[in-house]
Write a structure and sequence with these properties.
Oligomer: single chain
Shape: globular
Strand content: 5-15%
Radius of gyration: 19 Å
Number of strands: 9
Length: 286
């Protein structure tokens, strides 16, 4: 288990995290509670024996799933990414597998519909190739469609990629991406905020979008409909003071969301330079 550099006990904290979720917690209630008590660790709210019990249960579940490289980052620890605190309801725990150092590289999220057009896939591949060439790590959500194309192209171009998923690390979704998920876990970086022991909840997927936004310099929307979950990440990016890019092609289909987001501060992308220059500026400002 990758424990990082901690003053806290990661096993006790993740056990408390799982225990609180089992008792009905949400990301909002956890963040509110920690804030209310002066950034107290989660273990302050759970009896020690209960934290230990749930921590050991997580280790058992991950071992049974064949995961021997589980890592965890805890708010208050040396290795916790400070930029996660920019989220409206900051995470207290983040699980991961793979190369944690990728979190410290300049990264950009490439997101969009699960049912892209052929042009959408082509734009994704072209954009990722350019970003990889310029040294950016590609983050996405490992969903069908644009996400999968983004991850695969980054790998094919010998770049780096981060997958931020909406399931526990023990579950692959969609199933057809199980091999891709395992490759990212072994050779790149796979992260999840989803507890191992609670019941799956579709609300985890939009929450991971907010986390993906917080971890990156900016988000690029390649193609999305009016009800796409991608728009949750778009709003989060603006709230978190991240760059939000919308490809010019999104404005040509009678959609209302591109113009609405443009009014709120999104950037309309007419050429790759529109993205590159602003990402470089954001990286230098970090």
């Amino acid at each position: 288990m990758n424990l990082g550099s901690y003053a806290l006990s990661p096993l006790r904290e993740l056990g408390a995290y799982e225990a609180l979720w089992m008792s009905g917690a949400t990301f909002k209630t956890l963040a509110d509670r920690v804030r209310r008590y002066g950034d107290a660790p989660l273990s302050a709210f759970v009896p020690p024996k209960e934290s230990e019990k749930f921590g050991q249960e997580v280790l058992k579940v991950t071992r049974e799933a064949g995961i021997c490289d589980l890592g965890v980052r805890v708010h208050g620890s040396y290795d916790y990414p400070r930029r996660l605190r920019d989220a409206k309801h900051p995470l207290e725990i983040l699980y991961f597998r793979g190369n944690w150092d990728l979190v410290e590289t300049p990264s950009v999220a490439i997101v969009g519909t699960r049912n892209p057009s052929p042009d959408g896939i082509a734009r994704t591949k072209k954009l990722v190739k350019l970003l990889v060439k310029d040294g950016f790590t590609i983050a996405s959500g490992l969903a069908r469609g644009i996400d999968t194309a983004a991850h695969m192209t980054a790998i094919e171009e010998n770049g780096q990629t981060i997958a931020v998923i909406g399931t526990p690390l023990t579950i692959s979704y969609p199933k057809e991406n199980s091999e891709l998920q395992e490759r990212i876990a072994k050779d790149y970086l796979l992260v999840s905020q989803v507890p191992f022991l609670s019941n799956m909840n579709r609300a985890f997927f939009p929450e991971r979008n907010k986390t993906m936004s917080a971890l990156t310099l900016g988000t690029v929307i390649v193609e999305a409909g009016e009800t796409s979950g991608t728009l949750i990440q778009a709003r989060a990016a603006l709230d978190q003071n991240r760059k939000l890019f919308i490809l010019d092609s999104c404005f040509n289909h009678g959609l209302k969301w591109p113009s609405r987001l443009l009014e709120l501060g999104a950037i309309r992308v007419r050429s790759y330079e529109d993205i590159k220059e602003r990402l470089n500026d954001a990286h230098q400002a970090n």
